[in-house]
Amino acid sequence: QVQLVESGGGLVQSGGSLRLSCAASGFTSANYDIAWFRQAPGGAREGVACESYNGRTYYADFVEGRFATSRDNARNTVYLQMSSLKSEDTAIYYCATDGSYYCSRDRWNLPNYWGQGTQVTVSA
User: Which of 115, 122, 110 is nearest to 94 (CA)?
Assistant: First the structure.
């Protein structure tokens, strides 16, 4: 079965950095588009970053130039490197997938497969 498990969240000061990990199992993540979403308390779930199976990346305007997503296919793991963090970045971060072509065709629609989320808190 498709499973995604996020880790790496925590408390960081404004301007700091964190790297989130998303460990995949039950499928080969190298063959899937992987997206990152976040949800602040009381807010909607919003798209953050997306990497297609063939390596193209897409970012929401509010993280462009600060966040980067990447893969380690040998570990079946994807990453979200976050830098220059702001208090507005405080949210639960999720990785998600809907197979190939999600990033180019259905980007920011809610995928079908999700991890449990990891909390990121940025202090001012």
Answer: 115
49/56 Cα distance (integer angstroms): 11
In this prediction, residue 99 carries a pLDDT of 84
Do residues 49 and 67 touch, judged by C-beta distance below 8 A? yes
Contact status, residue 20 vs residue 34, Cβ threshold 8 Å: no
Closest CA to 37 of 22, 18, 24, 54: 22
What does residue 48 show for φ and ψ, rounded to 5 degrees?
Answer: -120, -50
pLDDT digits (tens, 9 = 90+) for 63-110: 999 999 999 999 999 999 999 999 999 999 999 999 889 999 999 999
| 44 confidence band (pLDDT: 50, 70, 90) | very high
Neighbours of 27 (CB within 10 A): 16
